[in-house]
From TrEMBL:
InterPro entries: ENDOU (IPR039787), EndoU-like (IPR037227), EndoU_C (IPR018998). Residues 47-58, 69-79, 89-102 have a biased composition (Basic and acidic residues). It comes from the Eukaryota. The keyword Aminoacyl-tRNA synthetase does not apply. Keywords: Endonuclease, Hydrolase, Lyase, Manganese, Metal-binding, Nuclease, RNA-binding. Residues 150-420 form the EndoU domain. It holds the Pfam family XendoU. Its cofactor is Mn(2+). Coiled coil: none annotated. The keyword Nuclease applies. This is Poly(U)-specific endoribonuclease-B. PROSITE patterns: ENDOU. Monomer.
Length: 420
């Protein structure tokens, strides 16, 4: 408790497919179909992979933090009346702007702080896109035109995307992870004494594309087969997210690449509409109709199987961080790499891990860590349009297979697999 209160004060001051990754089976019904907006307790009451938002200046630079001096975000840490107990001894507080949840695992380190998503900003994302404010073009004058070599070689194109991700976080500077101990995928038991994430820098989730990404994560019922209804406000969030990331270098590069390859027409507005449809249109999965989308599956995650006994998708590090902070994710260790001597550490940005989500085990999962939302969207979209099911590429120092499963003209699933 003492550590948590101190953290609040600090903030105030300053080869193979995912197990069970079934391809969707039915076409998308009208968006008006009803879904069950069950609480998490209702969605999951019980307890092998996919390896194999406050005013913002009109111009934002990612190396600045215009919100770092906010002192009105959190009420006094000693105001015990606003706290409530949660499971396993953690405590939760919600004051309208921030939600902070104590960690539910013992730590042998002293985490700096535990930042949660700034929900005060999200209501501004629910208005029509024309009424919203966006960052200025965030390509910083970089050349986002693909070369002939990149057009002929997907590996070189993906490497260029990695270089263009100016919004990627720096391990040790922007966040810290503790991988704990390793295990083989079939081994039972928790090999991690603490959380995967030790801390995240104060401004990270206030970066425009990160914040808009976070606002989308609570729009879904993760119970596979449960029909979704996307409200008009949630549709505004989707359009605004695509508009925001379309101002960044990775998405601009993606656009030019697809135009030069003849995949799409040279119409940027039409491209953005295509991206909204590709990532957010609903389709069927697990026998249900209108119950899933590429965004929900890849980034949010779904719980499938009778009785909710398997986690599918869930390949995004931001979602993992937030769910772990709320006590919904229990990190259980990394999976031993294929080659000896290549175990992950605090600097690693491609992880293969095991965890439980609301008591449901995901025995094998892989994610990129610290990369920006725009980078992942660009990467998986690029592989979907010009790659195949297996896409052997290099992302910085990492040799990766980007698995991309299709459902007609939609993304069924997409995720990285470390190749060494």
């Amino acid at each position: 408790m003492e550590g948590l209160i101190k953290g609040l004060i600090d903030v105030a001051l300053g080869g193979d497919r995912d197990d069970g990754e079934d391809a969707p089976r039915t076409q998308s019904p009208p968006r008006e179909e009803q879904r069950s907006r069950a609480t998490w307790a209702e969605v999951v009451s019980s307890g092998h992979h996919e390896e194999a938002e406050e005013e913002r200046p009109s111009s934002y630079r990612y190396d600045q933090s215009p919100w770092s001096s906010r002192k009105d975000e959190i009420s006094h840490p000693h105001d015990q009346s606003s706290w409530s107990s949660t499971k396993e001894g953690s405590v939760e507080k919600s004051d309208g702007d921030w939600e902070v949840v104590g960690k539910n695992k013992r730590h042998h380190r002293s985490p700096r702080r535990h930042q949660m998503a700034p929900t005060d900003t999200w209501h501004r994302y629910k208005v029509p896109p024309s009424e919203q404010e966006y960052i200025d073009d965030a390509d910083y004058g970089l050349d986002v035109k693909p070369t002939r070599e990149e057009l002929d070689d997907l590996t070189k194109a993906c490497s260029r995307l990695w270089e263009l991700d100016l919004n990627r976080l720096v391990p040790g500077k922007d966040y810290e992870i503790d991988c704990g101990e390793g295990k083989k995928v079939y081994q039972e038991g928790d090999r991690a004494s603490g959380n995967l994430f030790s801390w995240l820098s104060d401004d990270t989730l206030r970066r425009p594309t990160y914040s808009r990404f976070c606002s989308l994560l609570d729009n879904y019922n993760p119970n596979e087969g449960c029909k979704e209804v996307i409200t008009s406000q949630e549709m505004h969030e989707q359009v605004a997210f695509i508009e925001e990331i379309s101002r960044t270098a990775p998405i601009k590069y993606l656009y030019k690449y697809l135009v030069y390859k003849g995949v799409i027409s040279d119409d940027f507005e039409e491209f953005k509409r295509m991206m909204i449809s590709l990532w957010f249109d609903l389709y069927g999965r697990g026998g249900g109709s209108g119950c899933s989308s590429a965004f929900e599956h890849v980034f949010v995650g779904e719980i499938k199987g009778r009785g909710g006994n398997k986690v599918a998708g869930f390949h995004n590090w931001i979602q993992f961080y937030l769910e772990e902070a709320k006590g919904r994710v229990d990190y259980q260790g990394y999976i031993f790499p294929k080659r000896r001597g290549h175990s992950p550490d605090s600097e690693t940005q491609l992880l293969t891990i095991q965890f439980e989500w609301n008591g449901v085990l995901k025995s094998l999962s892989s994610s990129l860590v610290g990369v920006s939302p725009e980078f992942e969207v660009a990467l998986y979209t690029l592989c979907f349009f010009v790659g195949g099911e297996d896409n052997h590429v290099y992302l910085g120092p990492y040799s990766v297979n980007i698995k991309c499963y299709r459902f007609g003209n939609k993304i069924g699933s997409a995720f990285p697999i470390a190749e060494c």
